[in-house]
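Justification of resources, computational component.

The compute hours requested in this renewal are based largely on the per-chain cost of generating structure records like the one below. Each record pairs the submitted sequence with a full structure-token output. That output is archived, and it is also reused by downstream analysis tasks.
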Amino acid sequence: MRLDDFDYELPPEQIAQTPVEPRDSARLLVDRGADDPLHRHVRDLVEFLDHGDLLVVNDTRVLPARLQLRRSTGGAAEVLMLEPLDGTRTTWESLIRPAKRIKRREVLLTAAGVPAVEVGERTEAGETFVVRLVGSGDSLEILDDLGEMPLPPYITARLADPDRYQTVYAREPGSAAAPTAGLHFTDDLLDRLAADGVDIARVELVVGLDTFRPITEDLSLIHISEPTRPSKSSRMPS
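The structure output for this chain reads:
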């Protein structure tokens, strides 16, 4: 297997720029192993999960972690807050663009000229920085005031409702990107699954740097075992 085995042409007009409503009207491809897949909708998930099955959902909440700032010289700078490095969430590991031009101890400003972020050292990985939020008050409130939802780069339309980039069961703020499969669930769908005896377990899996990092490993060196035929419940997305 080679990395270019995953290359394919995706026309821009085939990339949805606005979320479908209602959420569970999104299309669902059902893998049936050796049989042909089924083309259904997420709302049809109740047909494929049985009493006693377990649905695991990631209830991390997405932070408005992308800050559009500027340098004192007037140039634009973007900071993506990835992970807090202290208990007060004042110091963060972050991606910065343009990374090559940013200097240590440089303070980045809001459009109004208010100091927002002080840049520190590069991390050991070399691709991220340690940054500190400047200003008093709760750090999450500062992000709410300054930040915007970190949409994927292939989404160019502005998000009218920030909550649309959250799952309906999101709880603790912590992620720099959404667990996207869960965006298609509705409260009604979850209630129907629970009424059918499907158990729902919550986990917190913070989405961070790796979701933005391209694959660089030589896949030809990775051994992939022959898959076993999955059970019906294990084939469903969570």
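Residues 233-238 have pLDDT under 50 and may be disordered. The two ends are 27 Å apart (CA to CA).
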